[in-house]
Amino acid sequence: MNRIVLAIRLTAVAVVTLVGAGACTFGPQEHRAGGPAPVNAASGTTGASGSPGPIQPGGTAPAGSRRPSSQGPDRAGSPSPAGSAGPTGSTGSAGSAGSTTPSRLPAGCTQGEQQREVETYLARLGGFGPVEVDGRQSAADCAAIKRFQRRYGISPAAGRAGPTTADVAGRLARTNLASCRAGKGTTFCVDLTHQTVWVVRDGHVLLGPTVTRTGKPGYATVSGSYTIDYRNPREWSTPYEVWMPLWQHFYGGMGFHETTTYLHDMSIGSHGCVNLLPEDARRMWELGSVGTHVRLFGRRPGT
């Protein structure tokens, strides 16, 4: 009997061991979905590994930084930043902050304090669906605002016309594509004043305008004419210890790359680089090459 009990216990231990090993085995570390595979760090330091200083790359906060809690100023009930503009030309309670949501709206779609302003910009930009510039949220307005927010990485993409949505839409609407003196071939255009970027090839706009974030105070991105002289699918910034996906270098420690933080947090900025949304970084990587022209003009406010 003792032998039978012992055999049963040994069998149970073996079964637990095998099942436990299979359930707890960790696979190789995965890269970000859709992101490029890493390259050897030693081979990816050109233009990005100099000593820290005003002209340094790493257009992201140091590794370990977190998305700020203020990432969602377009959330219902959140206050506008100090000094932010109110709704342009809005009149009556329908266009004011805290107005009640019309009954025609779908559940969860609220009206923002900058409703008329956002409606005006989206009507000017086009491409996001019908909007009625009346300062009142409707189901069609909400759908168009959501599409706009999803396209430009605004969180949350809930259709509410808050300060971030109004700021991004306004910068895009005010961007003058003719202000970039693009010649033959492909040109990356950067409007530092409006913090926008677009791509022109032989007079035709292939991308944009879309939003960017450039150097913060003390690390202002340079203006002028340059060319892309080095590219790396995954560049390592030595001074800031952070990967910079889809790196395209043009001057000093500056280059274009996908942002690794919330792009619309303008309080952190970059160290001179031109930060891009993932979708835009991938498209500019496809359109660019060594020798692509770069035109930067204006100056980021506050730098």
UniProtKB/TrEMBL annotation:
* Pfam families named in the record: PG_binding_1, YkuD
User: Domain L,D-TPase catalytic: where?
Assistant: 186-297
Q: PANTHER family recorded for this chain?
A: EXPORTED PROTEIN, L,D-TRANSPEPTIDASE
Amino-acid biosynthesis as UniProt keyword: no
Record keywords, A-Z: Cell shape, Cell wall biogenesis/degradation, Peptidoglycan synthesis, Signal, Transferase
Q: Which residues form the signal peptide?
A: 1-21
Q: Where is this region: Disordered?
A: 29-114
Where composition is biased (Low complexity), the residues are 41-53, 76-103
Q: What is this protein called?
A: L,D-transpeptidase family protein
Q: In which pathway does it act?
A: Cell wall biogenesis; peptidoglycan biosynthesis
Q: What is the lineage of its organism?
A: Bacteria, Bacillati, Actinomycetota, Actinomycetes, Micromonosporales
User: Could you name the active-site residues?
Assistant: 257, 273
Please tell me whether the keyword Hydrolase is annotated for this protein: no
